[in-house]
Amino acid sequence: MAETNSTEPTFEINQIYVKDLSFEAPNSPRIFTREYKLKYDHDFEVIQQPLDTTNGIFESQLKWTVTAKTEDGDVAYVTECHQAGIFTLKGYDEETLNEMVKKACPQVLFPYLRETIGQMIVKGGFPAFYLPPVSIALMYENKNAVIGRSDSGATS
Predict the structure, then answer these.
(1) Closest Cα partner for 18 from 51, 48, 61, 47?
(2) Does 12 or 141 have the greater pLDDT score?
(3) In order of start, what are the domains of the chain with their CATH numbers?
(4) Separation between Cα atoms, residue 77 and residue 70, nearest integer Å
């Protein structure tokens, strides 16, 4: 057996699970009796919490909401998924650890979330919809840049 160097950074996936799941079709069954074209809005949030910092165990959660509306503005459906995972991260400096928990862990969760949301929409009676592959790190940075600009202290 090969020995591992305890100072080498480690990244382990302990568990992946759905923490919360919601699907609403407020205009059904009426929406199924007419033709419609959907427009989509997305929102996401990355949530993390330490579970056992001594042993480097963290929960990371990727919350994603998809709202589909008709051209008339009627809500066809709203779906929300909180995909979560428990990760063990050891051997990282504080800055790198923070980046791993906020970006790398949610990126691992994204394919699971993508599949869950896609299946939920189809089971709701709507055409298949799949979130495109994305870079969670880039989206997180862009969202924080927008939030940073909106919190610049300006008042109306």
Answers:
(1) 61
(2) 12
(3) 10-132 (3.10.420.10)
(4) 10
